[in-house]
Amino acid sequence: MNFQVTVLKVLVSYPDGFAVMADLKRDMAILATSGRDWAERTKRLAARVPDLDIFSQGLIERMNGGWRVTDKGRSVLATMEARSAPAQATELTPVRTVEEPTPSPMPSIAPVRRKRDRKRRQRDTVRRRQASAS
């Protein structure tokens, strides 16, 4: 997972582009554990801007216990996500006539929460068994 691209993507997902550190860390942890798709996607985006440095380039700013994406950061992210014209032409050829739903830009966190909750319940059960056995 590319840290800098993920920070930009997370901050852009907030309405005003600002997130306190606790929210930013939580969202990044969710994405980091969401699987290979996210890691591969951020690598592809980062490859389009190899000298990316969100701090020194002024793409984000630190303020009030959090980070906010700047207009420059939004435009750099848009540039990274923009596809070249030939690639679009090949992708626009219709394969099916049924309209498919567009994938959401951020993966759902529900599966991660369910997995985390299941593991927590399993740990609690083991601890209760160990406590009652002693």
UniProtKB/TrEMBL annotation:
Keyword line: Plasmid
Region annotation Disordered: where it falls in the sequence: 82-134
Sequence ranges of Basic residues compositional bias: 112-134
Name of the featured protein: Uncharacterized protein
Species, as recorded: Bradyrhizobium barranii
